[in-house]
Design brief:
With 161 residues, the chain is an alpha/beta fold. Helix content is 41%, strand content 14%. The strands form 2 sheets. The chain has a 5-stranded parallel β-sheet. It has a two-stranded antiparallel sheet with strand order 3-7. The N and C termini lie far apart (54 Å).
Length: 161
């Protein structure tokens, strides 16, 4: 009986995966594939990241949880957790210009590997998901911190909560 239930679950999964019109995994795969070459061109070193963050109009976006952000973040960052991304919430934070320069960073940009930036598995780093989501929502001017830094380094300008 148990193996029959497992077989039914496995055979019914593909049909169920396509049943919800509000979830489109094939489109996500296509978006991910199309974004990959662009993302590789959008990685920037720490010094360039900080210089860009200081430019008027640039948004430094921290997509970590609200709790993690409150416990510490780079000075000047604005928090919108990835789980809260919608067209409306992004427009409220980013503004009317979809080409506004947006800089992103995540836990995996820090060598500290402790709260509030515990290391995530590399293929699941928040930067990857954040980049894909921003481009998918129509924001093409995203740059991502490429380096690993120590949040105790004064150049980082870490704001502890």
């Amino acid at each position: 009986m148990r193996s029959l239930l497992l077989a039914l679950a496995l055979t019914s999964t593909p049909a169920l995966a396509q049943a919800n019109p509000q979830i489109d995994y094939p489109a996500f795969q296509a978006l991910t594939a199309s974004v990959a070459p662009e993302r590789a061109q959008r990685l920037i070193a720490f010094d360039a990241f900080k210089a860009e963050a200081a430019r008027p109009g640039t948004l430094l976006l921290d997509a970590r949880s609200k709790d993690a952000f409150q416990r510490g973040h780079i000075k000047g960052a604005v928090n919108l957790p990835l789980t809260d991304f919608t067209a409306e919430s992004l427009a409220a934070v980013i503004g009317a210009d979809p080409n506004r320069p947006i800089l992103i960073y995540c836990n995996n940009n820090f060598s500290n590997h402790k709260s509030p930036v515990p290391l995530k598995r590399a293929p699941l780093a928040l930067n990857i998901q954040t980049f894909i989501n921003l481009v998918g929502y129509g924001y093409p001017n995203v740059r991502e911190l490429a380096d690993v830094v120590d949040f105790h380094d004064p150049k980082v300008e870490w704001v502890a909560g």
